[in-house]
Amino acid sequence: MISVAVEGAVASVTLDRPAARNAVPVAVWDTLADAVRDAAGRAAVVLLGSAVPGVFCAGADLTEFPAMMADAALPPLFRAAMSRATDAVVRAAVPVVAVIDGGCFGAGVALALACDMRIAGAGASFAVPPARLGISYPQGDIDRLRALVGSGQAARLLLTGDRINAAEAARIGLVEIVAADAEVAAHAVAGRIAENAAESIAALRAGLRGEPGGDARFDALFGGPALAARFAAR
To answer: What is the 3-state secondary structure (H, E, C) of 25-74?
Structure first.
């Protein structure tokens, strides 16, 4: 259900499990993590999207939940596998952009939250429904949601489980861009990112993640090749 394709400076990691609306089984989270790392090693930008019309990701595969209910050893394994995938996105060597055209629910939202930015089609919709199922959300995903939309809106999404449309998602900061064609818009943004200095992108992403050493990164890049090349070309 996971494929990787590279075209120039842009790699695409694509979900493709139409019969299950791209619901991700436990065993596939590690495959997804590997795919993101592979794509990030081959391109300047990674687009994370779907080959299924009208669907980004329905979340976790609910058909696996009865087994987890019957065996207390399984939920931690599910949570850890999902965390490995989202951590792979967060820590990818290059920017990762979520391309959300259609439904994005539950663990699908967690996957989108892990990306550097989110571009939604006009028909996209979002919901975080664990409370409706009688479960919770992994703490790292709660933290990312709160950081992105604020405590109040995070509470609204988590505690009600309500579905919101793309316009509302943009209003509260869950997505950065809403476009008539999310794929076209995402490729345009990826192209602009890829034009910039890779070392600058890496330093800026480290700063956005709150990693220490930001001032040292700033100072060091004045001795870097990208700035020297820009001034040599003048």
So the answer is: CHHHHHHHHHHHHHHHCCCCEEEEEECCCCEEECCECHHHHHHHHHCCCH
Cα distance between residue 69 and residue 77, in whole Å:
13
Indicate the pTM of the whole model.
0.96
CB atoms within 10 A of CB 147: 13
pLDDT digits (tens, 9 = 90+) for 59-91: 999 999 999 999 999 999 999 999 999 999 999
Is beta strand 96-100 parallel, antiparallel or unpaired with respect to 45-50? parallel
d(CA 15, CA 31): 11
**Strand ranges in the chain using DSSP code E only, listed in sequence order:** 2-7, 10-15, 45-50, 55-57, 96-100, 103-105, 117-121, 125-127, 164-165, 177-179
Strands 2-7 and 103-105 turn out to be: unpaired
SS3 212: coil
The region that residue 102 occupies, defined by phi over 0 for left and psi between -120 and 50 for alpha, beta otherwise, is left
Question: What confidence tens digit (pLDDT) does each residue in 99-143 have?
Answer: 999 999 999 999 999 999 999 999 999 999 999 999 999 999 999
- Whether the CB-CB separation of 128 and 157 falls below 8 Å is answered with yes
Residue labelled with tokens 């060597």? 93
Q: Which of 98, 71, 88 is nearest to 30 (CA)?
A: 88
Vertex 86, ends 80 and 88: CA angle to 5°?
100
Residue 88 · residue 37 · CB < 8 Å = yes
Contact (Cβ atoms closer than 8 angstroms) between residue 49 and residue 56: yes
